[in-house]
Predict the 3D structure of the following.
Amino acid sequence: MIFDCSSPDQLDRLMWSLCYLSNGKHITFYYSILKVLVLLALAAPISIGLGLFLAILAKSDISPLKLLGKFIILIVRGIPDIAWFMFFVIALDQGLEWVRHITLCPDWTEPIRQGADFLVCEKAKLPGNSSSETIHEIYGFILAIVTFSIIFGAFAGNIFYGALEAVPKDQIETAEAYGLNPRQIFWRISFKQMWIYALPGLSNLWMILIKATPLLFLLGIEDIVYWARELGGAKTPRFTEYPHGDWRLWYFLFLLIFYLTLTKLSEKVLDKLTRKLTYGMGFSGENFLQRQ
Amino acid sequence: MILTCLEIIQDYGLRSIGLGERVLPKTDITICHQATLIGSGMLWNIYFGVLALILGFFFAILLSLGRRSDHQIVSYLCDTFILIFRGTPLFIQFFFAYFLFLSLKKAFPVFDPFTSAWLGALIILFFNTSAYSANIFYGALVAIPRGEIDASDSFGMSNWQKFRSIEFRQMLRLAWHILMRQYLCFMLPH
Amino acid sequence: MRNIFFMIPVILLGYSTAFAGDTIRMGTEGAYPPYNYIDDDGNLAGFEIILGNELCARANLTCEWVKNDWDSIIPNLVSGNYDTIIAGMSITAERDKVIDFTQNYMLPRPSAYVAASEDVDLSGVISAQTATLQAGYIAESGSTLIEFATPDETISAVSDGEADAVFADYDYLAPIVEASNGDLMFVGDQVVLGLGTGMGIRESDTELKAKFNQAITSMKEDGSLNKLLIEWFGEGILTY
């Protein structure tokens, strides 16, 4: 550490604050802020990819694929996201372990469920029992990203589907008149044009995604909510060098400001992007949203 | 079977609001127990959902009008209110509000009931849904065709008449679908 | 998109480090001083961390600590996220139905009420941590129970006037009362609940249970457990 923090009770106010705010526990807190940003940075592109895939499925000419795409979008959107979070992470984790169990330990004879216990063989455990706690945390984090991506992917799928429908029919007809085949029309006209129609919806979804990030806390990940509660709680001098009263109000005020800044920044960037992309289109993104 | 289930409902049906049996069953937990207890918890969902939505509906109209207002301070305040409640996660709002009410309570005893869930959480849900609905109303207000307003002006309508018979109706008509979709999202707990 | 598809087989069948089967994952709460808490550096500390490490050394196991919220600490043991619970958990008949316990490493300890004034009505609103012995006791005693997810919040509830008193483990309360400069005080009678504190282990894990039982016995016999107890809980603690 840059400052001498060996005996905090002797320090003046400013140094005390600096030492307090830079102790190991706070570093973990800052690190958890990074976790939120990483989650956003990874979940957003994956969701968009999944959403495109689902929308293409739902627009497919092959009816089983079409039904499958529509069904996935409908089912994920119809269930409250908290329920998904609670259910999906456990199901995904146990599902993966179960698949590994039957492939890696075919000789295992005991049942997987014994009473309340969920037992797979040592080799099937994910991550392995002897991997370090960091690996376990990364694994948990990946599960969370997958969960977020699936939920938001379905929402994005719905937006892309709507956007593909919104591409003006005259453009498609013109393409037909030029002799383009359906596949060419889809990839060269509809797919390219739909982005502009999808943008307002995607902007909205991004805002919702930002605001869904504290749900990490519900997945048992030590995120900003966990650390804000832990750091803010009153501390007695026996167990810390920095005893203080109940400071949770201030930690949560900080979180509030953090999210507000993130939202406000995103709003600015997305506004600019929308204006740029819809330039000359005869409508602005907002107008389009109203028309929907 | 049905009889015992009725008894269970009698014992636990209102448990979530503090009536009936306090101690949870320990042995022989049946589907009926689970359904009753979950149902009992849902009483709160209905209480929060219905009250917050109804109150929020009216407050949202005020907020949206305030945001459109020519009075700069009013418009700024409404805008900030909407920004704060739409721009931050509900989860964090709950936490923050709880701690804020706790601090207020220490200074002013009036705030005593605010830290109880029935009031504190209701206020946050109310503010939250108000902010979201106000944004929808505002969007509808500015989307009312200019001609309709001009026409009402040339009929010599007062501001209140204009609001009541033109703007309010048109605003509701334009906002209705989005508002209903928003309410549906709200009732499915986010 | 391609990335996840690429990842799935890697996760499913990829490299697994599972043959060194001796790593035991130890689940704890990290919010319950002096039993277990997070120190200023962000690491786990407390009586149970020292004890757990010593037990692992004696049983020849490599141990890794895992933090988990209290209210899901039993479900996550049962579903295999970690192998033991060592989190100030009292042995009770009710918990024993779901998981197994080692022998106790602390004798039954009193639970006590702490309030902000002497003349508080103990049949009023009492705060306790969710899914604890104390919460169960209050629910049956006829007082109004309000539950909180962390022990820390149960104390705040009393300081903030949310609850008339908190009912919790005496050893958890003592340092807090001491640090409050007279704002908080013990009231009413102490009650001894439970069968002592032990390590929770999955019912199917009989081998692990035997290993830890043996290690606890050895610490009881050579007096090191008593020394540790006195070091963390003071001279007044019941020793073996």
The longest strand of chain C covers residues 185-192.
